[in-house]
Design brief:
With 217 residues, the chain is α/β, with parallel strands linked by helices. It is 53% helix and 13% strand. The protein contains eleven helices and six strands. It has a six-stranded parallel β-sheet with strand order 2-1-3-4-5-6, with helices on both faces. Helix 2 packs parallel to helix 3, helix 7 packs across helix 11 and helix 8 crosses helix 10. It starts with a strand and ends with a helix. This is Response regulator.
């Protein structure tokens, strides 16, 4: 079972998400809370597999909760999917910088909500389709970022570059394997190798690095 925590200041949203997710055979909602302080406390207590966080919440907003649960300084980070009404680049960038595994708009629909939870749990990332390419192409804005992209500790192999380019287009591990005729375990091996070489913590950061560095144009 994938154990999920929901944090949103609107009770109707929490109830709706809970109904959608609890109806799945492989997902269980272990808590739902109305504010950011409770989200941090409950997440640290229960250690859910995935945390679904709204951005605008009392106490601590979802971006700060994400940083505290999944940020670069967290020794044992949790997996976070930010779910919001607000399609703002600033929010998306900050959420992903703070360690989020996905970014979903509330109007994306039940199917994408369920898939975002499953993707986060298995180490993939899901970003609402309408913002994926825009987000990654303009991650922190153009050429300045490209100059700031860290050089890999050692060159990526040709196959690793193929996998990185596919990940940067938003493909899941399964889709990458099908496109490149690789097994799922081989895709995961390549992504793990790339993470080490470019200093990324997850596939979202790999994709961002690809756009920043010009690997994907």
């Amino acid at each position: 079972m994938i154990r999920v925590l929901i944090a949103d200041d609107q009770e109707m949203v929490r109830m709706g998400f809970r109904m959608i997710l609890d109806a799945q055979d492989d997902i269980e909602v272990v808590a739902d809370v109305p504010d950011g302080v409770s989200a941090v406390a409950k997440a640290r207590e229960l250690r859910p597999d995935v945390c679904l966080l709204d951005i605008r919440m009392p106490g601590l907003d979802g971006l700060e909760v994400t940083r505290q649960l999944a940020g670069p300084d967290v020794a044992d980070p949790l997996k976070v999917v930010v779910v919001t009404t607000f399609d703002l680049d600033e929010y998306v960038h900050t959420a992903l910088r703070n360690g989020a595994s996905g970014f979903l708009l509330k109007d994306a629909g039940p199917a994408l909500l369920i898939e975002a939870v499953r993707a986060a749990e298995r180490g993939d990332a899901l970003v609402s389709p309408q913002i994926t390419v825009r987000l990654l192409k303009h991650f922190d804005g153009g050429t300045t970022v490209k100059r700031e992209a860290p050089a890999p500790s050692e060159p990526l192999t040709a196959r690793e570059l193929d996998v990185v380019k596919a990940a940067a287009r938003g493909l899941t591990n399964t889709e990458i394997g099908a496109e490149l005729f690789l097994s799922l375990s081989t895709v995961k091996t390549h992504l793990a190798s790339v993470q080490g070489k470019v200093g990324a913590r997850n596939r979202v950061e790999i994709a961002a690095w690809a756009w920043r560095s010009g690997v994907v144009d």
